[in-house]
Write the structure tokens for this entry.
Amino acid sequence: MDCVFCRIVKKKIPATILYENDHVVVFEDQSPQAPVHALIVPKIHLASILECHRKDDAIWIAVLDAIKLISHAGSFSEKGFRIVINTGDDGGQTVDHLHVHCLAGRRLSWPPG
Ligand code: 5GP
Ligand code: ZN
């Protein structure tokens, strides 16, 4: 299977990695939509949030740990940030490997487009 995020997880193609633990890799989005735009990506291939089940609880704990860690390390925990999981065509998902966007560094509008 030719999955771009699996290739980044396995270090087969480069990315600016901000943080890594047993379950997730965090790297900069190649097309940032805010001054901070990180992707939190499970190391195992799950096509979307719909492929996640209770047995995958360790991944979500790792996602929470990563969000808190990068928000403090990047000094945007106080001003705020947005977490997004695009899912499916209407959700705007373009990479079919589950990923959590973390956007920060500017005032983000609502509702999203
Ligand atoms: P989605 O649209 O699926 O929610 O988000 C996919 C994100 O992955 C996009 O924001 C896109 O810029 C980013 N992306 C796609 N391919 C690559 C890549 O090869 N490297 C990096 N760093 N980001 C990527
Ligand atoms: Zn993958």
